[in-house]
């Protein structure tokens, strides 16, 4: 075995990857980074500064100023922040500006779990455990709709389904680090799973990866 035990959890919006990453973090005592928060924070910062989100230089400048203490802002959890995030995430220079932070987190001696879109393909391709969490767009829209209602956002299910489809197309279609499963990722379709079932399935995948890693 070489390096730290890193678990990469990738997948599209509202597939349940954050929930799975948190559960795995509890199960294995590993620190968890929700990398989507970085892009959400850059989008919100750029918007607040009145920048054009299609302006790569302006968005990269916002990304460079980002600090970890800005990631707890509840404004990052809104529907709008998700949309802003996927718009700034298409810019290669924004992605480059966020690389060091993510790789430093992944490289810590204790090991780590990161969830996002490109953890297994770009950020930490050497991760010994990689999951790609999916669910149908309709199931994901239902989950996100309920989640946002719980946060007090008044939106319709149809609006959220349209958001999800638009974000899937943008995240999967961009040139820089497009959303896609790593070749060695294990696909986990949670469409018909409860949170408990998804967390159990994820643990089994990680146990198998851990056994291979211990033996190597
Ligand atoms: O929670 P949800 O899946 O809706 O979104 P998120 O993980 O917070 O990510 C928000 C947006 O950031 C995504 O739609 C991607 O455009 C971008 N993102 C990315 O490009 N790469 C990552 N590693 C994480 C997020
Ligand atoms: O991180 P990501 O955007 O992929 O999704 P999440 O934040 O983990 O999950 C989105 C919502 O779906 C949360 O409110 C979860 O509690 C819920 N969820 C669910 O209902 N069933 C699952 N199997 C997984 C998540």
TrEMBL record:
It catalyses: dCMP + ATP = dCDP + ADP; CMP + ATP = CDP + ADP. The keyword Secreted does not apply. GO terms for cellular component: cytoplasm. GO terms for molecular function: ATP binding; CMP kinase activity; dCMP kinase activity. It is found in: Cytoplasm. InterPro entries: Cytidylate_kin, Cytidylate_kinase_dom, P-loop_NTPase. The keyword Nucleotide-binding applies. Belongs to the cytidylate kinase family. Type 1 subfamily. This is Cytidylate kinase. It comes from Phenylobacterium soli.
